[in-house]
Amino acid sequence: MEDSNGSGRGPTVQDVAARAGVSISAVSRAFTPGASISKKTKERVFDAANALGYTPNLVARSLATHRSGIVGLVMGDIRNPYYPEVVDALSRRLATHGFRTMLTTVWGDITVDDVAPSLVQSRVDGAIIASIADADRLGELLYKNGAAVMLFNRSAATSDKLSSVRCENVEGGRSVANYLLDKGFSRLAYIAGVEHIYTTQEREAGFVGRLMERGVQLFAREHGDYTYKGGFDAALRLATADTRPEAIFCANDITAIGAIDGVRAAGLRVPEDISIVGFDDIELASWPPYGLTTVRQDKAALIESCVDVLVEQIRSGQRTRHIQLVPVSIVERTSVR
Questions:
Q1: Where is the HTH lacI-type domain positioned along the sequence (predicted)?
Q2: N-to-C CA span, the chain
Q3: What kind of fold does domain 13-65 have according to CATH?
Q4: What is the mean pLDDT of each run of 10 residues along the chain (337 residues)?
């Protein structure tokens, strides 16, 4: 079977250039993320490539440009509904800049040491790391291998080189403390997430710190593991205690969703018997069976900043450290009386 050029071989960059009426270098620029080329010329090249069935040789381009066009997304447990939303949005925004994504997960028995070799060998141009243990260690390794690195919604605990964008976790925790105290609650509990994850530490520090500033001790603390089951079990324990809390602040929304069901399983009502607040504002939080009052992260702002800074670092070759905090706000629904 002959190809469209009649030679029996696949279409080449020369074929695309001839069909589009442009130079070979223009075709190369059209398929290179961030290269200087007019929109009109780029469209002509893509139209010609589609008509011929041409796809660029990514390996050859990588060798020529010293870029792979790949950004690694390194996530923890993506069963948390927050992170599939984030992965989708990050991938879409990176695609607008011409980058493909390589999703890698680090959770359970999969460690940083398991995934680091594939990221390095794939010669990723950049990496976005979120919600994993040893984020600093992986980030430093990729940084030393020439990749631009952004920590998403966490800060570097030990590295002075890695850039990060995160929401105001501490301020979010403080705002929940003020919100519940101002409503007259005094017996307040906290259901934590994964203990070593930076977000749960910051949210708890803000919440408990503000309670103490206002002369209130944390009534109870449970471990929720950032999961529905963790939230359900923790809330069930709190709801069946001899003296139960009046309100519970959960480290994230999926924990809070589980907590609502846990309180109901104990034969109690939300919010009449126990009020519940989450953190993230995932889509499920707004569903009528839950009506979760929560701390909203501005995911759009987090994602826009994260991707745009990373892309600029990749294209410029500069690795100037960038730290950004994105404000949060409380969204009131029906889970607090």
A1: 11-65
A2: 72
A3: 434 Repressor (Amino-terminal Domain) (1.10.260)
A4: 52 87 83 76 88 68 62 86 90 91 87 88 91 86 92 84 93 98 98 85 96 98 94 98 98 97 98 98 96 96 95 91 94 98
